[in-house]
Fold DNA polymerase subunit gamma-1.
Amino acid sequence: MVQASPGYILVGADVDAQELWIAAVLRDAHFAGMHGCTAFGWMTLQGRKSRGTDLHSKRAATVGITREHTKVFNDGCTYGAGQPFAERLLMQFNHWLTRQEAAEKVQQMYAVTKGLRRYRLLDEGEWLVTELDLPVDRMEDGLVSLQNLRRIQSEASRKSQWKKWEVVAEQAWMGDTESEMFNKLESIAMSDTPRNPVLGRCISRPLEPSAVQGEFMTRHVN
């Protein structure tokens, strides 16, 4: 039997829970500066596995998979893995699911966690909207949906002999329980010199955004 030396105690740690808690602290600091001020932060503080109110249990109930499987999904989601990864994972855990059913469940999961992508246009994008007289629905802060973005790009390309236009200044997740957390993680990952917010350490220079042009988002967040 392993015993602690006099004056010491052994402490068990759930690494998955620790990573989610750190992400929650970042999100709360970014949102309002108080731990527990968001739904995600509140679940890490007050959620209980025994009551089914912790984050893993809530997500498991949303999609209809076991809590242990959800922990794997949560890790991938937190580190920026996309929907194709989540679909493959879900089908691996539930062999009876068709690809379409898996896609629908993953879309449901992302909709109630990450939210939906919204985009801020560059000046060139705003010029195209005005010049082409395109109807665009905007959020209160001026962001546009993916549907509107594709319409702008499609019309601009069609009317300029299929020239490719760069119209996006930035993108953000909006509208659900964990949107702010993902925005904060991605803003750190895509900064000029990504640093660990606690230790202040940088990632490897070959992986800096200036070198990889926005690729390897999952590696940056990790």
Residues 116-211 form one domain.
